Each structure stands twice: as C-alpha cells, then as structure tokens.
Amino acid sequence: MKGPRSNNTLHPSNWGQAAAIAVLWLIARLPWRLATRLGTGLGHLLYHLARDRRYVVRRNLELCFPDLSTEERERWVHANFGYTGRGIAEVALGWFGGPAVDRVPFRVLGLEHLNAAKEAGDPVILLSGHFSCIELAGRLFGQQVDMAAIYKPMDKKPVLERALRYGREKKLERVISKDDIRGILRTLKKGGTIWYAGDQNMRRTEQVFAPFFGMQASTTTGLSRLARMGKARVLPMFYYVNATGDGYEFVVGPPLEEFPSDDRAHDAARMNEVLEDAVRHAPEQYFWAHRRFKTQPVGAPDPYPELQHTHIGRMPWQKNKLKKAHKKRKRKKSDDGS
Known about the structure:
about 50% helix; 7-stranded mixed beta sheet; two-stranded antiparallel sheet; alpha/beta; 9 strands; 12 helices
C-alpha cells in the first residue's frame, strides 16, 4: 500500500511537493524579467535564512578559491544565493512557462563544433554542469538542437520527478534515467545527442577520486564509459546568465581529443578540468550549495566540519524526526551494551 500511495499527488506525504509545484506554476505566469527579479530577491532572503546552505557555499568557495579575501568571498556567497534564487524562477519558467519563454534572448557560441560532429555522423555527448540556469537552459538550447537529457530519478519525490519530466520533454527529444544505460546507448547508436552533467558527488561504485579545484572529489566514471560504449564524441557545452543579466549565453567547445582513454581516473580528471574551466568563467553562478566534496578518501578530514545538520535539505519537522530516531538508536545501543 505504501508504494502506490506515495505516487499519488493527493497523498499527504506528497503535499509539500505539490505545494512547491503550485508555487513554480504561479511564478511561471509572470513575465520572465519580473520572475527572475523575484527569484533573485528570494535568493537574497535565503542567504539570511538558510544557515547550513550558506555554510556549504562559503566552505566550498573557501576550499576552491583559497586566495580570495574574506570580504570578496562573502560577496561571492551573497551573489551565489541571488543566482540560486533566480534559478528557482528559471526552473518555473523552463517547466511551466508559456510560449513567451521561448523568446527569451540568448546566443550560442561555438555551435559549429556540434554541427561538424553531427555532419560527420558522430553521436555526441554534451558535457555540462550544474549552473543556476540549467533548467531554462535546457528549454532554450532544445530549440536549437535535438537532444536527449540524462536525469537522476527522484524516487522519494515522485511529484517533482513528474514535473521535471514534463518540463524537460517540452523542448527536448527525450528524458532518460541515468540508470537506463540501454536507452542511452540506443540514442547514441542512432547518432543522437545526449546532454550530460556529471559534476555531483558520487557515492556508488562507479567513481574515482579526481582533482577539482585542487580538492579530491568523488567523480563519476560514467562519461568515459558511455562515450566508449556509444562511440560518441564528447563536446563541452555550458550556459550562463549574460553579463547584463538580460539574457543567456551558451558556449559549445570543440570535441575532447583522445577521449575516452584507457584510464578511467585520467578521464575523470580530464572531465573535472573542463568543468573547472567553465566554473571559472562565472563562479557566482555555479551550484555551490551542493556538498561536492562530501565523500572523501578513507582517513581524509571532513571538508564540512561545522555543518549543523547532516540532512540539510530536509524540513525542520523531518530533522526533528531524524534526531529522535538517532537518539533511539543510541539508547538501544547503550542498553545492549549494558
């Protein structure tokens, strides 16, 4: 009974997700400039409210840009929250915005690299990263290029997952779960284009530790594996809010030479190097709220030692529930020991 109920939008366990979707739908009714200004303001408010997230952003910047002064780093933290809030509005516009969203100004640099690969008949993987405008970028770039997108299923958030698929499938050719290897390879073997973002902390077996801004980062080996199995060319493709904030810029790079190699650790380091170069182009717009260095080699110190709550994405009542469960386990362990 629990499984089917959890997929029902009206089930109480999904009310929070349904409310979030309703808010996104309302934001999408606004003109895009007003929506993004509203989102930026929301981000600046979250800067003051989201203590744990603020710590993670600040700590990531401290680890990755150690030469920044304290004052400059804090300006970046504040700006990053602004872009994160703007990103929430861009999710709304990307998923639920009307036809006017497709007329949002943007320009694409380096599209000739992708066109050349397609004219040669090569399947392509577009290597991207988690920048704040990712969802709106997918919708806008999908007008230019027929491509499928890989996504991470949200098993515990079925309502949000359905919304994500609905929003992305508006302009993208297909949305494929990262676990659907056969589906990904079928698309590549047909000469298709896959949009791939592999810059999240990995806890599964298909990972290695590779440098990212001088830190050891648990990094997926999926990119080189898919490129090898699908005989695909890998092209960098990144997206940013432009310097004036009134449009977007996409940058497509040339194919990575001699990629993949026979060394998965070398390929993971190469991928992180490409991502690092892209982040340096607009560091305030990167998703620094993610604990990129959470998983570390055995014996390495915790990169986030002052984090107040382990489950920083949970609501207060969920955190309290986890605290009670933790105390119960400690009591049980103590009683068993006695």
